[in-house]
Write a structure and sequence with these properties.
Blueprint: H1 2-24, H2 31-57, H3 59-67, H4 69-91, H5 97-113, E1 119-123, E2 130-134, H6 145-153, H7 162-165, E3 179-181, E4 186-188, E5 193-195, E6 200-202, H8 207-235, H9 240-273, H10 277-281, H11 303-312, H12 326-333, H13 338-342
Antiparallel strand pairs: 1-2, 3-4, 5-6
Bound molecules: zinc ion (2 copies).
One zinc ion is lined by residues 167, 169-170, 180, 187.
Length: 347
């Protein structure tokens, strides 16, 4: 048909254009990535709306920018920092168990290649991990799963069944505090939660970045709110529709600020006590936390060390934590004495 003759080149051109589009933006092929991209665009747009209306309506602010450029420069710096922090956190790995296993296996392979190395001892600086793996061991895969399984088992009390530790989705042994995320379809080390807003899991690898992101957003929200209040104080007699827009935006900012502040305080509490959101919310359902009295934080090593680990520790096998023994739990439960206070036992 003649129509086919006319349409065929057009269809071909369209297909080529779509192919090029897919090549340039591969994320648009996947619905999950598409929604993640939409969220990112929405976040940037939201920031621009709040700041844009301020600079559009507030003539005093424009005047102040000329008089005191450093003040607005600082505000814009925080504005950009919050956005950059969002993208860094969203793009960072939460610390996947599979990656940790691969790293561990690679390290084992290197040791095996070395003729002198017969044993590999993995130990953390603060003693949270003391796992010795004998490379001469042979099993399913002498450098693979069996070595990993053996190391993971060392984090649990003796007699723990391997079946209980194995994730039924990834078929991989989970170290303590790891959990399978159904959104990411991967096991995450020190799983905190899956953040829909960031489109990624929050775990051992990016919890610190996440805290900083909430902190920067809270500060930005507060500063923007102050600028809105200042505008309304000085320009309330201006055009009513301008005031209405600014009041509505201010109300939403206040709600956002309260939410962010509570989230920041909540995560600060988790950091200081070395807990995760998942452990706090599902405490009774998590097997390794069953039987531990309420108010006792089994992984806490004191405020200062918890803070140090949170800020400086990176997602790796060296930072996995073994389950505390009965003796250690008993020690944590011991009531505070004057000497404990003097020696800063809680720190
Ligand atoms: Zn899994
Ligand atoms: Zn996830």
């Amino acid at each position: 048909m003649p129509t086919d003759g006319v349409c065929a080149p057009i269809a071909e051109l369209r297909d080529r254009a779509l192919d090029r589009c897919s090549l340039c933006f591969p994320c648009l092929d996947d619905p999950a990535r598409r929604s993640s991209l939409a969220l990112k665009v929405a976040l940037v747009a939201l920031h621009l709306v709040y700041a844009g209306f301020l600079f559009l309506f507030d003539e005093e602010l424009i005047e102040k920018t000329r008089r005191e450029p450093w003040y607005i420069a600082l505000y814009l710096l925080l504005f950009v920092a919050a956005l950059v922090q969002y993208f860094i956190t969203a793009g960072s790995s939460p610390g996947y168990v599979l990656d940790a296993m691969e790293t561990y296996n690679e390290a084992n392979t290197l040791f095996t290649r070395s003729p002198t190395a017969s044993k590999h001892t993995a130990s953390s600086k603060n003693g949270s991990l003391m796992g010795t793996v004998d490379n001469s061991h042979s099993g399913r895969n002498s450098l693979g799963r069996s070595s990993w399984s053996k190391m993971v088992l060392e984090f649990y009390p003796p007699g723990t069944s391997m079946r209980v530790l194995t994730c039924s989705y990834c078929n991989i042994e989970q170290p303590p505090r790891a959990k399978h995320c159904h959104d990411c379809d991967k096991c995450v080390l020190q799983f905190d939660h899956h953040c829909v807003w960031l489109g990624t899991c929050i775990g051992q690898g990016n919890h610190c970045r996440f805290w900083w992101y909430i902190f920067e957003e809270t500060a930005l929200c507060l500063w923007t709110g102050i600028l809105y209040i200042t505008y309304l104080k000085t320009s309330i007699s201006g055009a009513w529709w301008k005031d209405l827009i600014m009041i509505l935006l201010l109300i939403s900012l206040v709600i956002l600020f309260i939410f962010l502040l509570l989230l920041l305080l909540f995560h600060s509490y988790l950091v200081l006590t070395n807990q995760t959101t998942y452990e706090l919310v599902r405490r009774r359902r998590i097997q390794y936390l069953r039987g531990i009295p309420e108010g006792l934080f089994p992984f806490s090593k004191g405020v200062c060390r918890n803070l140090y680990r949170f800020c400086c520790a990176r997602s790796s096998i060296n930072n996995m934590e073994r389950l505390p023994t009965a003796l250690e739990l008993e020690e944590k439960l011991r009531p505070y004495t004057c000497l404990d206070v003097l020696t800063c036992r809680c720190c």
